[in-house]
Amino acid sequence: MQATLTWLDLTASDRDKMRRVLDLFKEQGTLDEMGLGSLRDVLSDALFPGTSYIQTRLRYVLFVPWIYQRLEARRVPSGDVERAARAAEVDLIGRLEQNEDARGIIGVVARAALVRLPSSLYWGPLTRGGIFRPQQSQGWYHSHFDALVDGRGVVGRADDPGVIWSQDAHWHPRMPEAPKGFPGEASFAFTHDEADFLRGRIEESCAGTLLAWLVRNGSDSPAENVWDDPDARRAPGSIGDTLELARRFSLHVAGIPLLYNLLVAERRREVLDQDDGQAIDALRRALAEWAAVEADDSPYEPDVLWDLVVRRGGRLPHHQRVFIESWSRRIAELDPDRVAGDPRLRALVAERELRLKGGRARLANRNRLVDWSPWSNIHPMDFRMDFRWVRVRQFLIDLHGGFAA
User: Fold this and answer.
1) What whole-number distance in Å separates Cα of residue 402 and Cα of residue 405?
2) Of the candidates 39, 122, 273, 277, which lies 20 to 30 Å from 202 by C-alpha distance?
């Protein structure tokens, strides 16, 4: 089921908060209805590798090793390490809640029923950044826990029995020690040494990306949108080129989910006799506003994105390419006030959903129309991709806050 929000006429501050919540649904929802998620992910990984919408605060990258180091010091058996680590991670929830800055605590609602623990969400950055030096899975670590702790010479590599891993320093040797009192006392605030260590890991493992640039050249007060951030906008060479490519693509396709939702609202009124007139009017206005902004920008050139996808080894299905190029050509031919009612664009979007979803396509399935909720208000850029900036922005605030401490 597509997640939806009902917009209210709130203050500007409240509206911004609501929009940040909406950002979290960009992983699924309309982007997947139109098959745009894979292109978003290629650009997200090019800008901010190793990040994810389901990550929250940066200091978890240190919490996880510190928890495991405590288990190593206690010499917890391999058979018990998964259970012991879970207990420690669940206990951390309550410790973090005691702080004034308690935003982004993973599992604050689920508690002991939490399915995806912080260690699983952050294991990728730990291996990518060389913090867990064997660069193996969490399951591999658990199964080899006894041997790693005991220092039994070497451990066979799980992915290649002919390759061995030395026992020396399976955690990065320069990783800062856990603060005194951890985990009884824990917060998201970095010390200077911790921030410096993580910055070095990110710069080394993500060299040539906007993420690496911003951990060195960014600040603890980044802009709400990545393309409005002054430090991001002065990124040099290919980094700046990738950001501009992402900016231009995100604007160009922001009209697709607006038109799709307009078609759904109109279809609901027709099939279910729903009074969605307010939502229809709001979506038409948003489309016209978006189209005016799009028309004022530089011409969109899809081939630049296709080249990036190929270089990064991504998938570029033929029908996805044809869909974007058809959208681009038609948008370039239309005046902004004609976009919402254009028959060719409407057919393009409807056919795209049908191709991807078949009998589950909302525009062709009465039952799926029922679970769609209309907006009473919407901004033309509400569906614009942010490429995980909502998360990366918080990471930068956390990291650079450590240098200011």
Assistant:
1) 5
2) 39
Q: In the chain, how many domains are there? A: 2
> Could you tell me if 339 and 20 are in contact, meaning their C-beta atoms sit under 8 angstroms apart?
no
Cα 374-378-383 angle, rounded to 5 deg? 95
3-class secondary-structure state, position 99: coil
Residues forming a β-bridge with 156 = 164
Region of 106 (left: φ > 0; alpha: ψ -120 to 50; beta: rest) is: beta
**How is residue 25 annotated by DSSP?**
G
Same domain? For 24 and 80 the reply is no
Q: How far apart are CA 246 and CA 298, in angstroms?
A: 13
DSSP class per residue in 272-326 = H----HHHHHHHHHHHHHHHHHHHHSPPP-HHHHHHHHHHTT----HHHHHHHHH
Q: How crowded is residue 262: how many other Cβ atoms within 10 Å of its Cβ?
A: 23
17 and 133 inside one domain: no
Tokens in use for 91?
A: 């206990």
CA angle at 325 for the pair 324 and 329, rounded to the nearest 5°: 120
Amino acid at 68: Y
pLDDT digits (tens, 9 = 90+) for 273-313: 988 899 999 999 999 999 999 999 999 999 999 999 999 99
Rounded Cα distance between 405 and 392, Å, is 20
What amino acid occupies position 253?
V
Please check whether residue 72 lies inside any domain of the structure: yes
pTM above 0.85, yes or no: yes
Residue type, 86: R
Least confident of 93-107, 141-155, 188-202: 141-155
Contact between residue 387 and residue 250 where contact means Cβ atoms under 8 Å apart: yes
**Whether residue 183 has a cis bond before it, omega within 30° of 0:** yes
128 phi, psi to nearest 5 deg: -60, -40
* Cα Rg, the chain, nearest whole Å: 24
Least confident of 58-72, 76-90, 224-238, 368-382: 368-382
- Rounded CA-CA distance 89/106 in Å is 9
* Count of Cβ atoms closer than 10 Å to residue 10 Cβ: 12
Q: Is residue 237 helix, strand or coil?
A: helix
Q: Are residues 303 and 368 in the same domain?
A: yes
Q: CA 170 → CA 135, 162, 310, distances in Å? A: 9, 19, 35
Is residue 373 located within the same domain as residue 265?
A: yes
Could you tell me which residues come within 8 angstroms of residue 5 by beta carbon, excluding any fewer than 6 positions away?
18, 21, 22, 25, 373, 375
